[in-house]
Design goal:
- This protein has 304 residues and is mostly helical.
- Helices cover 68% and strands 11% of the residues.
- Helix 1 runs parallel beside helix 3, helix 3 runs antiparallel to helix 7 and helix 4 packs across helix 5.
Length: 304
């Protein structure tokens, strides 16, 4: 079983490192004279994500403020740290033979305006940065909401309003994550076609690098979407008087595995479950939790 304290310690370490990466990139951009608008926007994004990272670090270091979805948080912060490091290297390369002269930045801006690689690099980086910030804000706000609603001094009516408001907010964030996912998939498909048709060796290499960064953006989006789904599940569980902690549910080799509340039709109340690992293999079935009226038939093999 995964050690929660070990995960939190690792998350604290990577968050501390990421704050330094964000500050380093912010300083690099701030030191550029007559910085173009595209980089100025990135500087603003970095300025927005740092306080969220610092808030996360404070809460993880405090035993009085438990943070939910720590696995997702760690993944999001790692992706953010990687994004900052990668973009800084790219920016250093763009500036390697340049001066901080205004004429250079006018030329650079012209390249950005017409270049798929430069435009895409900036857009992908901003997407990864925004996904990290959104993931952390969802996890932190849900943690605060659930902590607040566990206080006995708050009336039930007020708790219901708070939980309902969080559900509505999470549904909007989840919908946004789904829209972004579709956009990323479309961009990856279009870029793959461009790579296939590109004949210039250097341009092809640049586009392949951009494709790798898009795949990382896809990962950051998946973490954000998963965080919204899990936060929504936790909020609904508390709202309905049901608390669950389900870890890994896996099935392979024409098997079926389920966990949690299955086909309960909302009839179950005040249930607290702690289900860890549920797995099935070799054409078998595995179930854990409260399960009603489930079809136990095993999926047929595609080769049959």
């Amino acid at each position: 079983m995964t050690d929660p304290l070990g995960i939190t310690a690792a998350a604290i370490a990577i968050t501390t490192a990421t704050i330094q990466s964000v500050r380093s990139l912010y300083t690099t951009i701030s030191d550029i004279e007559d910085v173009p608008t595209a980089l100025g926007n990135i500087r603003a994004d970095l300025q927005a994500v740092e306080p969220v990272l610092k808030d996360l670090l404070t809460k993880m270091e405090s035993k009085d403020s438990p943070v939910l979805l720590i696995d997702n948080i760690k993944g999001a912060v790692e992706n953010c740290d990687s994004a900052c490091s990668t973009f800084k290297k790219t920016l250093d390369r763009w500036m390697r033979h340049a001066t901080k002269h205004k004429a250079f930045w006018a030329e650079w801006t012209d390249r950005v305006r017409v270049g798929i690689f430069e435009q895409g690099t900036i857009k992908v980086f901003q997407g990864r940065l925004n996904d990290c910030k959104s993931t952390l804000m969802v996890a932190l706000s849900t943690s605060s909401v659930l902590t607040m609603t566990h206080q006995e001094s708050i009336m039930k009516e007020m708790k219901d309003l708070i939980l309902k408001g969080n559900e509505e907010s999470l549904n909007k964030e989840k919908a946004r994550a789904n829209r972004d996912s579709e956009t990323i998939e479309s961009s990856i498909e279009q870029l793959s076609v461009s790579i296939r048709d590109e004949v210039n060796t250097q341009s092809k290499r640049n586009l392949e690098q951009l494709l790798e960064e898009m795949q990382e953006q896809k990962t950051s989006n998946e973490i954000f979407r998963k965080t919204c789904e899990e936060a929504l599940l936790k909020t609904k569980s508390v709202h309905e008087g049901i608390e669950q902690e389900i870890k890994n549910t896996k099935a392979d080799n024409n098997s079926k595995a389920v966990a949690g509340l299955i086909n309960t039709s909302g009839a179950v109340r005040k249930i607290k479950q702690n289900i860890s690992d549920t797995s099935a293999g070799g054409g078998s079935f595995a179930g854990a939790g409260i399960i009603h009226g489930l079809d136990l038939s095993i999926p047929s093999s595609k080769n049959e």
